[in-house]
């Protein structure tokens, strides 16, 4: 019985190490989304930190700031969804079959 418990603990430690490695790799990834046919492009890393925003000059209209704001919001929301989807795909492999509340 004791040997079985030690074996299970070793397996848990291996899984934890793989999870940490996958999370580190995910945090290093770059995601990009655009809106308005590429008029606004937003980049983020796997930590959901916005790392870059590109706005094409022709979309900047002082008489229609709302459109530019909407494009920025759409691009930011899209890039965050990409990060969430990748996080769920990557980290979900470690929790398949486990019913652990609050885990990814």
From TrEMBL:
GO cellular component, one term: bacterial nucleoid
GO molecular function: DNA binding
Entry keywords, A to Z: Cytoplasm, DNA-binding
Main location per the UniProt record: cytoplasm
Top-level taxonomic group: Bacteria
Region (Disordered): 1-23
Subcellular location: Cytoplasm, Nucleoid
Tagged with keyword DNA-binding: yes
InterPro entries (UniProt xref): YbaB-like_sf, YbaB/EbfC
Pfam families named among the record's database cross-references: YbaB_DNA_bd
Family, per entry: Belongs to the YbaB/EbfC family.
HAMAP family recorded: DNA_YbaB_EbfC
Function: Binds to DNA and alters its conformation. May be involved in regulation of gene expression, nucleoid organization and DNA protection.
Subunit structure: Homodimer.
PANTHER family noted in UniProt: NUCLEOID-ASSOCIATED PROTEIN YBAB
NCBIfam families given in the database record: DNA_YbaB_EbfC
Protein name: Nucleoid-associated protein CUC15_00155
Biological source species: Oceanobacillus zhaokaii
